Amino acid sequence: MVRTTGPESIDSSGKIQKEPRHHHEVFSAERAGQLDTRLRRLLYRPDILAERLVKPGDTVLDFGCGPGFFTKEFAKQVGDEGKVIAADLQEGMLRILEEKMEREGLLHRVMIHQCSQDSIGLPTVFDGTVDVACAIFVVHEVPDPAGLFRELSRLLKRGGLFFYTEPYFVISGREFRELLREAEHAGFEVKKRHLFFLNRAAHLSKVV
Fold first, then answer.
1. What is the pTM of this model?
2. In the Cβ-directed half-sphere of 5, how many Cα atoms lie within 13 Å?
3. Comparing C-alpha atoms, which of 85, 179, 98, 174 is closest to residue 141?
4. pLDDT, tens digit (0-9, with 9 covering 90-100), for 94-106
5. Which residues contact 148 (CB under 8 A, 6 or more apart)?
6. The dihedral of CA 58, 61, 65, 70: what is its sign?
7. Is the pLDDT of residue 19 over 50?
8. Which of 177, 184, 77, 172 shows the shortest CA–CA distance to 131?
9. CATH number 3.90.550.10 given to 8-206
10. Closest Cα partner for 92 from 75, 112, 71, 111?
11. Rounded to the nearest 5°, which phi and psi values hold at 10?
């Protein structure tokens, strides 16, 4: 799955041109072990991130959850009254996640959902039910980020939190700013921008 469309620009003749964005391939489930290592846990501290973003009883959407590197800590934090929706495109990633959650005794707190290439695809009954949505190192793999942001906005409660981060070596500062503008057009307000370790990150709130 790749993203191939880009922002508009004006050429020397005054005509509007589409600037192609870089193609970003999906990180294969065959390399899932690289996503859950001791070094990554030290660098990204998923336990601390979960404590900062999630409250007991929350419904959390972990979009692009992969093998569950962050999902596990989200599931610990929501408690038995909460729920984590772990959504990913790849069946292989979701199998790894399910086995991990079962070993950790957390599977009852996790709903596992396989996305399609162009939609999260959750039933409309989930609209307006999500307290926190996370898209960690994944939006650059999505073919239609604007469509994704609209879908996330529909799923979140009014005032709900959207935590969004991209790798600095994949997404330039300019492209990240463009993506944040697309999120704003989908009904989000950027509350703050910061670095998540060395990666570009933002906290957004659903406002409409």
1. 0.85
2. 9
3. 179
4. 999 999 999 999 9
5. 63, 120, 135, 139, 142
6. negative
7. no
8. 77
9. no
10. 112
11. -115, 125
Which residues, 6+ apart, have CB-to-CB distance to 191 below 8 Å? 202, 203, 204, 205
Dmax of the chain from CA atoms?
A: 62
Token match 């962050």: residue?
70
In the chain, beta strands by DSSP E = 8-10, 16-18, 59-63, 83-88, 110-114, 130-136, 156-166, 188-196, 199-206
CA distance 2 to 188: 24
Task: Report how far residue 181's alpha carbon sits from residue 63's, in angstroms, rounded to the nearest whole number.
Answer: 20
DSSP 8-class letter at 25:
P
Q: Residue type at 96? A: I
Domain ranges within the chain, ordered by starting residue: 8-206
